[in-house]
């Protein structure tokens, strides 16, 4: 038996993102449920979000984002040999998303699997992609975070329906001579699994807001700092901090505790809502598109969510 | 030695001021967090976490919702 020779490192060559066209403002929601713009902005920091209609599935969102990342990378569909889709909101569990998305993008016979680590899913998938390249299991990987939260949220539950939204973000990951994706720090807190859950196939997503808020604002900044340490990066060197876009108050609380004094902090939630596994690539892709972060700079990613799961790593911005 | 009511009140005033911007002098025992001080449920979590760091008494979320006034929190910390 012999083993293949992997690459010394892996890096993100390009990002891409996609949001449904339908913009839903807080005032729009106030027409449907008992809420208002001031309440939503003060609690979660969201001004507007996007909802996909019945004509657009989480697979459609993933195909759009994946296609854009692929086009931006300059690689051809045939160059991709592994597709990983991070999602927790598939309408049906079988078949997986990765196979269907690959086929629609014209990627022929890649390894194709889904990752369910909820809002931490993209960071888990990115770590798996990097490891696959370094182990020689894959050459070029397409990683996609896609979510259609609206199909698992009860619009009448204002604790969730004002927060969660739809969208997708993607990254093309390729071999690299120097490390472009740092070591992942990941873990879980299964004792708090009940804090974010869909009880059964007939239920909607339920979230214990205070429990999640307390956990997120107290347990996660050491994880993010450890990801920096393991990558040999001082937080002050970071050009960007891109945490999962859960809640603006959580984002700001964690950012204060990390010491990323020179980093642009992603606040994409304001205009995109919480899109779970899609939120990190969606936010970073939009920051790159707006020219807010330098190519070659370092970005700290921090995913966290249902499970409860978390994962963090430093990456080089393409 | 456990903190006195006055010490806890002064500590809570400082914590609440840092988290919400409400003047510490407005934080008096009879004040209701929601009705009088307009403090929301997420700020209450931040206050509970800061109070735990300051006074060493953990206030779990299932207890937090029963603590309506400043005096309730002082009593909980002293208990």
TrEMBL record, chain A:
Q: Which GO terms describe its biological process?
A: fatty acid biosynthetic process; secondary metabolite biosynthetic process
Lineage: superkingdom: Bacteria
A Pfam family annotated for this UniProt entry = ACP_syn_III_C
Q: Region labeled ACP-binding — which residues?
A: 245-249
Q: Where in the cell is it found?
A: Cytoplasm
Active site positions: 119, 244, 274
- Gene Ontology cellular component list: cytoplasm
Q: What class of enzyme is it?
A: transferase
Record carries keyword tRNA-binding: no
GO terms, molecular function: 3-oxoacyl-[acyl-carrier-protein] synthase activity; beta-ketoacyl-acyl-carrier-protein synthase III activity
Q: Which residues form a coiled coil?
A: none
User: What is the stated purpose of this protein?
Assistant: Catalyzes the condensation reaction of fatty acid synthesis by the addition to an acyl acceptor of two carbons from malonyl-ACP. Catalyzes the first condensation reaction which initiates fatty acid synthesis and may therefore play a role in governing the total rate of fatty acid production. Possesses both acetoacetyl-ACP synthase and acetyl transacylase activities. Its substrate specificity determines the biosynthesis of branched-chain and/or straight-chain of fatty acids.
Its protein name is Beta-ketoacyl-[acyl-carrier-protein] synthase III
Gene name on record?
fabH4
Automatic annotation (TrEMBL), chain B:
Modified positions (O-(pantetheine 4'-phosphoryl)serine) are 41
Q: What NCBIfam families has UniProt attached to this entry?
A: PRK00982.1-1, PRK00982.1-2
Q: Give the GO terms filed under biological process for this record.
A: lipid A biosynthetic process
Query: Family assignment?
Result: Belongs to the acyl carrier protein (ACP) family.
Q: In which pathway does it act?
A: Lipid metabolism; fatty acid biosynthesis
A UniProt-annotated Pfam family: PP-binding
Q: How is it modified after translation?
A: 4'-phosphopantetheine is transferred from CoA to a specific serine of apo-ACP by AcpS. This modification is essential for activity because fatty acids are bound in thioester linkage to the sulfhydryl of the prosthetic group.
All copies of the Carrier domain together span 6-79
InterPro entries per record: ACP, ACP-like_sf, PP-bd_ACP
Highest taxon in the source lineage: Bacteria
Main subcellular location:
cytoplasm
Q: What Gene Ontology terms describe where this protein resides (cellular component)? A: cytosol; membrane
Recorded protein name is Acyl carrier protein
What does the UniProt keyword field contain?
Answer: Cytoplasm, Fatty acid biosynthesis, Fatty acid metabolism, Lipid biosynthesis, Lipid metabolism, Phosphopantetheine, Phosphoprotein
Function description: Carrier of the growing fatty acid chain in fatty acid biosynthesis.
Q: Which GO terms describe its molecular function?
A: acyl binding; acyl carrier activity
Native source species: Acrocarpospora corrugata
């Amino acid at each position: 038996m012999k083993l293949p020779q992997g690459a010394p490192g892996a890096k993100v060559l390009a990002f891409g993102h996609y949001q449904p066209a339908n913009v839903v403002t807080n005032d729009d929601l106030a027409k449907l449920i008992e809420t208002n713009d001031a309440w939503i902005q003060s609690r979660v920091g969201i001004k507007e979000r996007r909802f996909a209609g019945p004509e657009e599935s989480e697979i459609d969102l993933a195909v759009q984002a994946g296609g854009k990342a692929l086009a931006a990378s300059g690689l051809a569909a045939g160059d991709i040999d592994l597709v990983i889709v991070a999602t927790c909101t598939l309408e049906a569990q079988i078949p997986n998303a990765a196979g269907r998305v690959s086929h629609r993008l014209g990627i022929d016979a890649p390894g194709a699997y889904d990752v369910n680590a909820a809002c931490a899913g993209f960071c888990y998938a990115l770590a798996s992609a990097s490891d696959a390249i370094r182990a020689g299991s894959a050459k070029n990987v397409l990683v996609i975070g896609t979510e259609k939260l609206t199909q698992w949220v009860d619009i009448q539950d204002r604790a969730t329906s004002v927060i969660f939204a739809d969208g997708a973000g993607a990254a093309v990951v390729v071999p690299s001579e120097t490390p472009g994706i740092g070591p992942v720090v990941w873990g879980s807190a299964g004792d708090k699994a009940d804090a974010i859950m869909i009880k059964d196939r007939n239920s909607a997503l339920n979230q214990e807001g205070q429990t999640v808020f307390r956990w997120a604002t107290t347990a996660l900044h050491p994880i993010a700092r450890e990801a920096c340490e393991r990558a040999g990066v001082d937080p002050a060197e970071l050009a960007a901090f891109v945490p999962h876009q859960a809640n603006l108050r959580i984002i700001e609380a964690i950012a204060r505790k990390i010491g990323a004094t020179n980093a642009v902090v992603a606040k994409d939630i304001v205009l995109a809502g919480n899109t779970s596994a899609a939120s990190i690539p969606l936010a970073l892709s939009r920051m790159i598109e707006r020219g807010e972060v330098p190519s070659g700079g370092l970005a700290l990613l921090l995913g966290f969510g249902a499970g409860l799961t978390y994962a963090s790593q430093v990456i080089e911005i393409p | 030695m456990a903190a006195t009511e006055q010490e806890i009140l002064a500590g809570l005033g400082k914590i609440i001021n840092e988290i919400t911007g409400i003047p510490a002098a407005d934080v008096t025992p009879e004040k209701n967090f929601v009705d009088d001080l307009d403090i929301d449920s997420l700020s209450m979590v931040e206050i509970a976490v800061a109070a735990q760091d300051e006074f060493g008494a953990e206030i779990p979320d299932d207890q937090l919702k029963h603590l309506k006034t400043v005096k309730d929190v002082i009593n909980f910390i002293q208990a």
